[in-house]
Amino acid sequence: MKKEKEIKKTESIKWELSPAPESTGHISLKAKYDLFIDGKWVKPSSGKYFDTINPANEEKLAEIAYANASDVDKAVKAARKAYSNIWSKISPSERSKYMYRIARMIQERAREFAVIETLDGGKPIRESRDVDIPLAANHFFYYAGWADKLEYAFPNRKVESLGVAGQIIPWNFPLLMASWKIAPALACGNTVVLKPAETTSLTCLKLAEIIEESGLPAGVVNIITGFGDTGAAIVNHPDVNKVAFTGSTGVGKIIQRTVSNTEKKLTLELGGKSANIIFEDAPIDQAVEGIINGIFFNQGHVCCAGSRLFVQEGVADEVIQKLKNRMEHLYIGDPMDKNTDIGAINSKEQLETIKKYLKIAKNEGNKIIESSCNTPSKGYFCKPTLILDVAQSSTLVQEEIFGPVLTIQTFRTVDEVIQKANNTPFGLAAGVWTDKGSKIFNLTTKLRAGVVWANTYNKFDPTSPFGGYKESGFGREGGVHGLEAYLKI
Ligand code: NAI
Ligand code: MG
């Protein structure tokens, strides 16, 4: 108890910061965006467009073309033609030259990309500037390097490209997910039809502009915008050889069923409910910072968010008190402000989903602690929230919330925490905080998760494979493993 008071006393100052908004002067946005098919901007055959808005103030940013099955067919035909006539024929080192060029162009326009990502999706500018955009460029650089070295990636084995890749991506890391999908596909000699999520199409369309300027042969990358039915048309198209999807487990299951009786190759990267585990011997302050980053980073819109905290009993009071203090010091609000830690929830629908879970928590009688901060009156915002006294069987512990909501459970023994951490339908990531290397090695072999971070969280690198177990999906993206998804070996 004494300790709690001490912590409170020393960490209770929250500075009032003057607004520090990033400027929008240097960005260029069109009022209306068409589809990027066969190297040209074409109108959707239905003539329909939809609005994309800024979730931080609900203002319209632009109109986006709504593609239907006939537009998808045009795009797949363009991708097939480009594959057969050009992309599968040119030398691999030519392929990498185009990819290096695209990577450099993303870097040159990084500031514009960061601002548009934040306006369209609601994530803090600090994140789009320091994480999303640099990593997107790095993926192109990294896979550009593999294009002419595929025989070294898979020694003594013959590798062949697949053909046309249909790629569907979500709204949490729009440009980064586009790069995760497009870069390995191109490096391996495939052509692409990609659909961004309906709430965050803009940076993919800006990427299409770069692709056009880069001189990449027409049809090698086609960007199609629209909703779920547009995505379904890509999945169902008979001339698509490979489907890559990142998004909800529900849609992933539909896609798996559709693809199961075809020749199409499939990778799925779905939801998560990742455990972050703090042992008594952990560096507590560092761990608290990592937990905060793991769940509140990008408003919890991260498939591998550390959304379940397990803390060993002996340090539970201290950790919870420090989390509460740290949470009080987070800045929530205008995503364009350089000091903002937590920006806007991506859409009204997603905010409602999060609220639905908070209501369940209330009905279950869990202890709910939310930050006392104010949220802006316009736009979609959710205060960072901790859920205590929650049972392993609770919906809050079992289902993906995809928002800034952290459940906290305690444990006594290593075996108990392994059993609890593994006890959800998901298996994407986990974090372990301890001073003991032996504990880290023991847990990394027993946690059923694609990625296990030790004494850190949410660290990404193009050279490192990423993907899940169980309902979190299958196949790996990133690293040498990421090449396999786009090759016949
Ligand atoms: P979603 O899975 O519906 O959307 C992802 C993408 O799939 C979008 O581009 C969407 O247009 C497309 N899509 C939707 N229905 C499709 C279909 N039948 N066939 C082909 N493509 C289709 O995800 P949504 O509704 O935006 O979010 C719902 C939940 O999914 C979130 O609350 C979160 O729990 C989870 N999610 C997980 C993500 C991850 O990175 N693993 C990313 C986004 C959402
Ligand atoms: Mg938007």
Assembly state: single chain
Largest sheet: 7 strands, mixed
Give the termini separation.
61 Å
Please, how many helices? 17
Brief characterization of the structure:
The chain has 489 residues and is α/β, with parallel strands linked by helices.
Structure description:
Strand 4 (49-54) and strand 5 (59-65) form a beta hairpin. The relative contact order is 0.14. The chain is α/β, with parallel strands linked by helices and 489 residues long. Strands 14-15-16-13-12-17-18 form a seven-stranded mixed sheet, with helices on both faces. The termini are far apart. The chain has 17 helices and 20 strands. It has two domains: 32-270 and 472-488, Aldehyde Dehydrogenase, Chain A, domain 1; 275-462, Aldehyde Dehydrogenase, Chain A, domain 2, CATH 3.40.309. Magnesium ion binds next to strand 4.
Fill in the keyword field for this structure.
alpha/beta; 6-stranded mixed sheet; Aldehyde Dehydrogenase, Chain A, domain 1; 7-stranded mixed sheet; binds 1,4-dihydronicotinamide adenine dinucleotide; 489 residues; binds magnesium ion; Aldehyde Dehydrogenase, Chain A, domain 2; globular; 20 strands; single chain
Write the layout of secondary structure elements.
Elements: H1 2-10, E1 32-33, E2 35-37, E3 40-42, E4 49-54, E5 59-65, H2 69-87, H3 92-108, H4 110-121, H5 125-146, H6 150-153, E6 160-161, E7 164-168, H7 174-187, E8 191-195, H8 202-214, E9 221-223, H9 228-236, E10 242-246, H10 249-260, E11 265-269, E12 275-278, H11 284-296, E13 308-312, H12 313-328, H13 348-363, E14 367-370, E15 385-388, H14 395-398, E16 405-411, H15 414-422, E17 429-433, H16 437-446, E18 451-454, E19 473-474, H17 481-484, E20 487-488
Helix pairs in contact: 1-12, 2-9, 3-5, 3-8, 4-5, 5-7, 11-12
The structure holds 1,4-dihydronicotinamide adenine dinucleotide (NAI) and magnesium ion (MG).
